[in-house]
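Deliverable D4.2, example record:
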Amino acid sequence: MDRDSAIPTESFEEILAWLDADRDVAAAMYVQLRHNLAQTFIWRQCSDPEGMTDEVFDRVARKVHEVRPTYEGDPRRYFHAVARNLIKENLKKIKTQVSLEDVDLAEQQIPEAEQETVDIEECLQFCLQEMSSDKRELILGYYAKEKQAKIDNRRELAQRLEISIETLRVRAYRSTVSLKQCIERCLKRKDQQR
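Output generated by the structure prediction step:
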């Protein structure tokens, strides 16, 4: 992905300040946000997840001076909104690059699948925001990372919450079930609106 990386260094500092007043907390949030965005792009089967993650941060850096003073709520939602727009742009680009032999396939199957993916992502973000902050942090922390890092992360999460690993699993399971139910309700509403 071609990127214009001529972003002022003070924009990076402002992004960190926007994420949290405590620089250490902001740095941890920044790293987790990069990971979450990259995972979103991987999940959406984008060809360059890291490049697209960089592009999200570049775009936010260009606008942070304008957006930050008036933005209300969790700034990470803004990053995810920029990522959704970037995914839509990427899908449009892919559509315009389809060969003439694939026109029927592109017109009949791809848009439906793309819309479903967009709907799921939007419902996921909506439902995560609807959860209490404790449950949201638990579920995001529980499913963060991969392989051994995931195991270590879950152990640390259980220690931080002062609960056993088994209790953590049960809480994560319950939160996941309620999150899935919320997503299903959201998707039904979207289908009814069409």
